[in-house]
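Handout for the seminar on molecular recognition.
Each group receives one record of this type.
Step one: identify the two inputs.
Step two: read the structure output and locate the region that could contact adenosine-5-diphosphoribose.
Step three: write two sentences on what you found, then compare them with the reference statements printed after the record.
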Amino acid sequence: MKNKVSIIGAGMTGSTTAHWLAEREIADLVLVDVVEGMPQGKALDLQEALPVIGKDVKVMGSNDYSATAGSDIVVITAGLPRKPGMSRDDLLFANAEIVRHATEETIKYSPEAIFIILTNPLDAMAYLAMKVAGVAPHRVVGQAGILDSARMRAFVAMELGISVENIHCYVLGGHGDEMVPLTRASNVAGVPLEDILPAGRLDAIVDRTRKGGGEIVTLLKTGSAYYAPAAAIAQMADAILKDKHLIVPASAYLQGEYGLNDIFFGVPTQLGRKGVEKVIEYKLSEKEMADLQKSAQGCAENIAKLK
Ligand code: APR
């Protein structure tokens, strides 16, 4: 039987996720949005593109959650961006309502689904989705680490002129300016980044990685990044559907790992058919551990506000 992935929120990231997933030809796709006609229009446009690239995937758009019935994976991208005059808390509570509704509606129709959460602040939204859906922690995962690590990989590749395939970067922590790029573990074809790049250049790459989302927002002026976040979601869905046991950084529920409890937080995870199969604990330096704890504070505060 064919896999089914439903994407809630057919905006920039949702529709681009559908695009990347259709190219992978791993599941039929459903786009759901509150805007009338928009998910239907985007789904039809994408469906009409598939003969050109030779992919056999059904793509459907709807304003009704019943279309998501029987999904293997539910991706939640629905949400509001921050507007002038809005505080982070306003965004937290506004998006919490949207994510709560999307979770309630999708779990009803897809009781076995694995949830991938993108809506920001994503660590808090993943926590909320787990509580609202009432599912085991391994069935909810937040997208951020692959994106943050991919940004760092892209910057290293630009700096060195070496294939992105040779560049392995690991960014942990919350999805914010306090994220923790691991420069010791990151490497180029096995050689630690710290041995290849002069300290000044490496610091500049770490700084640019931390502010990677903001750099795009400033350039775009309206909206935020979507190609890279969507590509990251597609990789996670692929790993889950193919039961790949793929190790990638992602936001997972912690129960004592890294000394953290009862929060979703960016850590190395192993993804397979049951979702988060494992949280992997790296041996961190004192400084890395301290940075991680600092980053965790922000995530814990957001979750506390939701409670
Ligand atoms: N149900 C379904 N869809 C909704 C709802 C809702 N209750 N509320 C809003 N949406 C839809 C919007 O209509 C819009 O099409 O969510 C979509 C969000 O798309 P964009 O505004 O294009 O935002 P995008 O760039 O895709 O980012 C999605 O990810 O970066 C985070 O939190 C950020 O909200 C943002 C989300």
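Reference statements: The longest strand covers residues 261-272. The pocket of adenosine-5-diphosphoribose is lined by residues 8-14, 33-35, 77-81, 95, 98, 101-102, 118-120, 223-224, 226 (CB under 6 Å).
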